[in-house]
Amino acid sequence: MAYPAEPWSLRGRMYVSVWALPVADLPGLPAQLAGAVRVVRFGRRAVVGTAWVDYRPGGDMSYRELLSAVLVRAGLRPRVTITHIWVDSPRSRDGGRALWGIPKDLAEFELTGVRAAAATGAGPIAAARLRRRGPALRLPIGLRVIQVLAGAAKTTPVRATARCGPARVAWTIEPDGPLRFLAGRRPLLSMVVDDFRMRFGAGAARPWMARTLARSPVEAQPGT
Q1: Which residues contact residue 29 at a Cβ distance below 8 angstroms, ignoring those fewer than 6 apart?
Q2: Cα 23 to Cα 42, 137, 153, 191, distances in angstroms
């Protein structure tokens, strides 16, 4: 099944959590990134981000996703590298691996406005209770993801606009699962990133995405 060429134009909602972990407890990064990036440290701790993502109709594909990523730097330039990621779309899995070196695997999901869960044939990965906690602001978002593709480091730009606001995400991490390094911990903070319009990858944006990203409004939005 063919996947779209980059960049992917995507829409949807995600719940993001930020964690502070002892550096010694981080999942290992690929050896091919050793010379390209270093983990960003705050004393003896590093920053990990996790997200439940619902990619909705209106973009190039619709699917659901759970990911974990580590904050790193290339020199002084911040990057994120995705260490664990699952989707429920073979097209997304195949495209993510082939275009950007993102190590996507398949999982089954439950993802509603109040609950999230993901599991594979080997067992549960994680679950969470989701709740918004206040008003949101529409903000521009930009970051760069660095992965290993064809044995070398590849950096991919990501741009979006979204309504960002505080949220409560109560995680339950399977202690023997692939995200066990987060089991028994609580995130520092969580947020909802709603109504996002994202361009993932290099190349020309779709016309509607170019118009959206050309604007940089910061407008108050009522909580929903």
Answers
A1: 37, 39, 70, 72, 81, 83
A2: 9, 33, 22, 24
176 burial class (0-12, 13-18, 19+ CB within 10 angstroms)? exposed
Tens digits of per-residue pLDDT, 3-50? 999 999 999 999 999 999 999 999 999 999 988 999 999 999 999 999
**Residue 53 identity:** V
Number of other CB atoms surrounding residue 150 within 10 Å: 8
- Residues 171, 31: Cα–Cα separation, whole Å: 30
End-to-end CA distance of the chain: 36
Instruction: Give the CA radius of gyration of the chain.
Output: 17
**The whole model's pTM is what?**
0.90
How far apart (Å, rounded) are the C-alpha atoms in residues 212 and 205?
10
Length of the chain: 224
Tens of pLDDT, residue by residue over 116-146, are 999 999 999 999 999 999 999 999 999 999 9
DSSP for 54-74, written as a single string: EEEBTBS--EEEEEEEEEEEE
Angle at 190 between CA 94 and CA 100, to 5 degrees: 20
